[in-house]
Amino acid sequence: MEKDPRKRAADLLHLRGQGLSKGDPVALPLVSSSMFHLPGDPDAAASYGRVDNPTWQALEHSLAVLEDAPCVAFPSGMAAISAALFATLTAGQTLLIPSDGYYVTRLLSTRFLSQLGVRVIQRPTLGFAEGGFDGIDVVFIESPSNPGLDLCDIAAIAAMVRAEGGITIVDNTTMTPFGQRPLALGADLVVSSDTKAPGGHSDVLMGHVATRDAALLEAVLDWRKISGAIPSAQAAWLLHRGLETLEVRFDRMCQSAQTIAQTLEGHKAVQAIRYPGLASDPAHDLAKRQMLRFGFLIGLTLADKDQAEAFITASRYLRPATSFGGVHSSAERRIRWGDDVAEGFVRLSVGCEPVDPLLDDLLSSLDNLA
Ligand SMILES: *Cc1c(COP(=O)(O)O)cnc(C)c1O
């Protein structure tokens, strides 16, 4: 049985404190050392900076409490995704990825993995299971997909993939462990960009892989050690600090997003809106079944590029920036990166501002659109 997320959040805040001796610092020390004192047999807790670091270990301990699974920290979300794919795939195998997910995962697969003899196939997140999973070795899911916010049934897909002998990886970046539990739904590996809500302050890039499968965990750890894709101690320290407030930030962000989505739905300047928490959203029933929260991302389609840009720039409380999940709300037109969305499609990331002024600000920008 999975632990209540609120219990997990409380445990997280006292994880370090439980193991302290008199005089130890309560806050996590930032240990930045490539060398560790290692006379005789190399059997110490830390050996060399590419292999171990006490600050990463503390971070991974926190992440493991959130995921209810062993975790491996990486210097970015893409480094975590690369680790999961390189640790599971070999030449001659087949990888299925979403055609409408995060575009850099597609680039990694089509520009690099395919050149190493991996067959890469793509399907849209909506209808991802159509065609089945026979002959597919690794299935990579992103639900809700970034940026379109379509969903697929993680539990049903993971069960089908397992029955065919394959491995399921879920990119849980848009939801965090407080919003969705892919391992509990049957996934083998979870990957996340902790650059987003887990870091939360837009001052660090990080990522992690979580898995309860001992062999997969060892492969991911070997990949990090051998490829050298290691986080800096400073970045690990910042993420550790961010995780301590993730639950309270995520709660505020999801609640505000629900209020904002309900208010903007039906505004005359909004042609279409996607938010899994809206009763009118095509994915709402599935979202209720598989997600604990409905997230902080809203997809807004305005009339055209000019209206979308005018909305973003006129809003005092929106940072016009790529990435999402920060304490400050932000927005961007995703077509500028080549995503298959309308010219006027805006991905809105709801931050931690109190909802009333934020909503007033967004409404007045929308009201002023010609
Ligand atoms: C941002 C993002 C990534 C990549 O994360 P980085 O930390 O930028 O490397 C991967 N997947 C999704 C869904 C993302 O939004």
TrEMBL record:
Cofactor: pyridoxal 5'-phosphate
Regions that span the bilayer: none
Classification via InterPro entries: Cys/Met-Metab_PyrdxlP-dep_enz, PyrdxlP-dep_Trfase, PyrdxlP-dep_Trfase_major, PyrdxlP-dep_Trfase_small
UniProt KW keywords: Pyridoxal phosphate
Pfam families: Cys_Met_Meta_PP
Family statement drawn from the similarity comment of this UniProt entry: Belongs to the trans-sulfuration enzymes family.
Name of the protein this chain belongs to: Cystathionine gamma-lyase
Taxonomic path: Bacteria, Pseudomonadati, Pseudomonadota, Alphaproteobacteria, Rhodobacterales
